[in-house]
Amino acid sequence: MLNIPVPHDRLAFFLAELGISDEELDFLAPYRDTFVSHGDEFGRYFYDYFYAIPRTRIIIDHDKPARRLAKTLSNWFESLFKERLNKEFLSFLWKSGIRHVDVNVDQRYVNLGYAATRQFCHRIIQSQVPSAARPQVTSTVDKMLDLCVLVATDAYVTATTRCDLEVIKGVAHQVRNPITVIGGNILRLQRKIESSGKDSQMLESIISQTRRLERMVTDIGVYNEIFREDPQFTVNSLQQILSSTIAQVKEAKGINNAVVELIFHPGFTLVKADTRDLQVMFRYLVENSFEAMDLNDPYLRVSSGGDSSERFVHVEIFNTGIPPDKDQLDNLYTPFYSSKPTGTGFGLPIARMIARKNLGTVTIEPVPGRGTKCMVVLPKAEPA
Ligand code: HEM
Q1: Spatial separation of the C-alpha atoms in residues 357 and 228, rounded to whole Å
Q2: Domain boundaries, the chain
Q3: Could you tell me the fold of the domain covering 1-228?
Q4: Model confidence over 80-115: pLDDT tens digits?
Q5: CB 140 less than 6 A from any atom of ligand 1
Q6: Among residues 364, 266, 281, 254, which one has the least CA distance to residue 319?
Q7: Ligand 1 pocket test: which of 48, 53, 56, 96 has the largest number of ligand atoms within 8 Å of its C-beta?
């Protein structure tokens, strides 16, 4: 089974958000035994329900000993009503979500299971709870099941995302070593070959493609790492981040003839976001702008602004050059799509993922005849 720590804080947050009060749980107390007495019946009902669906029947047939699921679900149902949704119960439930990924149960079927459980509980309430108490008991049981759905979904999303990221990380790691060996050997060969000959041109092209692969592996690593980490929201100065990012990119790319203008509107210079995420996002966006710039009129303008009633800061990054055409615009955020021969096609997907993670957006707009405008919108922060 996947070894992922239980996110206790998030589970406690779900519990608090659903507002299941102690009074409600006390009100349920006289009916708990009634529900518990239906445990075995629930196990059988659940088993038969999913044994009738071909896709889940196969999973059940794999599971040994036969009919184990009926016992598992009967136990789960009983503990739902015996225990007061404590930390142990929520952890157990969360781990069952991870187990479902292991045994290949799609979350949609788990959700269907919760819908069937809700109907089963409503039938018990209808037949065995006095009519005056029914609305309150129904509301509490519904909230408890809502909590279970949230916890199970959280586990499923965490586990499947983790699996995807592990695959991507593995591929990037496996590709990195051969590229380093190829790159090193090509450089050695290049030293032995005449610098003006046909072979030398061929080697140049291999080196350039090897570097592209190296950058791609690095970008995949960045994507993975940033996707995995939760953002730490702090107050950030756009002026500071963008000035140093632009200086770094200019130095790394050896750019010294471009005209760069920075215009920050006094009321729109602070954003609430993760500092490292911002640095990475702006680095990719600024690199893109410098690469797309018109070499005969190299100009970059970064400006901030917004509407005073708004809760967001708008950062515009404009560069001269040929704006993207329709086909390029449609594919800007598709990983590995690049209109540049040595591009990795990962810059904009990373930038957009970071913007979303930090509750913002990134859009690219052509400015016909002049250049391209990249607009970043981020939550505004007040001075600390
Ligand atoms: C209301 C929805 C569901 C709940 C509350 C639930 C609960 C659980 C729990 C508590 C476990 C035991 C986890 C462990 O001991 O590590 C489990 C395991 C399992 N579940 Fe589910 N489950 C649900 C839906 C489903 C569905 C729709 C299937 C489809 C076939 C399924 C198949 C399995 C299997 C094969 C196992 C592993 C073997 C076993 O312990 O019986 N579950 N589930």
Answers
A1: 10
A2: 1-228, 234-379
A3: Globin-like (1.10.490)
A4: 999 888 889 999 999 999 999 989 899 999 999 999
A5: no
A6: 364
A7: 96
